[in-house]
């Protein structure tokens, strides 16, 4: 019986540490949970209030927050769909215009007093690298983007993740879990 209780306690404690739960206090404070094998990165991009990275698998997720109290006289975004259209336009523009470019429709839903707008897209990301002789080379990587715009009574959030196309299904599950964990304080 003691062995069974110890095993159950061990399983529960391992499950409890599989996710990190933190509260971000910039703008509108919010809680978020993410897998503990991800590293939180600070200061990588302007306007990003939260970013995690899984380096071995080349997966990045970041959040941009626009608190409503910071808006000037005119509202920035009327809906979650406005949020996603605004922020996705830049990311989509960074991809090559070729047969690899696939842009999904925007899907919207409302739950628990929050508006959500989801959009996935993928394509070739062009970058410069150097060969063994130091000669500049243009290369392409196929990336999948899983994104959501969220609008609450206090703020809007743009949540982006990107990873190699081959790993999209795996990381889409993680993305949905992280997004579902966002709770304003």
UniProtKB/TrEMBL annotation:
Record has Iron as a keyword: no
Signal peptide: 1-18
Entries under Gene3D superfamilies matching the protein: Mog1/PsbP, alpha/beta/alpha sandwich (3.40.1000.10)
Alphabetized Pfam families for the sequence: PsbP
One Gene Ontology cellular component: photosystem II oxygen evolving complex
Keywords, sorted A to Z: Signal
Highest taxon above the source species: Bacteria
InterPro entries: Mog1/PsbP_a/b/a-sand, PsbP_C
Signal found in the keyword field: yes
GO BP: photosynthesis
UniProt cross-references to SUPFAM superfamilies, sorted A to Z: Mog1p/PsbP-like
All copies of domain PsbP C-terminal, residue ranges: 30-182
GO molecular function, one term: calcium ion binding
Protein name (database record): PsbP protein
Organism field: Elizabethkingia miricola (Chryseobacterium miricola)
Organism taxonomic ancestry: Bacteria, Pseudomonadati, Bacteroidota, Flavobacteriia, Flavobacteriales
């Amino acid at each position: 019986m003691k062995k069974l209780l110890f095993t159950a306690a061990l399983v529960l404690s391992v499950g409890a540490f599989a996710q990190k739960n933190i509260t971000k206090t910039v703008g509108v404070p919010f809680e978020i949970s993410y897998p503990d094998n991800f590293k939180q990165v600070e200061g990588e991009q302007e306007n990003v209030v939260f970013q995690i990275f899984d380096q071995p698998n080349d997966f990045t997720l970041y959040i941009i927050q626009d608190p409503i109290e910071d808006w000037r006289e005119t509202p920035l975004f009327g809906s979650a769909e406005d949020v996603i259209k605004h922020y996705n336009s830049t990311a989509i523009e960074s991809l090559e215009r070729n047969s690899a470019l696939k842009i999904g429709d925007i899907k919207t839903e409302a739950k628990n007093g929050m508006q959500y707008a989801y959009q996935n897209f993928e394509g070739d990301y062009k970058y410069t690298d150097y060969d063994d002789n130091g000669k500049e080379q243009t290369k392409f990587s196929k990336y999948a983007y899983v994104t959501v715009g969220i609008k609450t009574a206090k703020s809007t959030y743009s949540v982006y993740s990107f990873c190699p196309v081959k790993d999209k299904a795996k990381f889409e599950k993680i993305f949905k879990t992280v997004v579902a964990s966002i709770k304003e304080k």
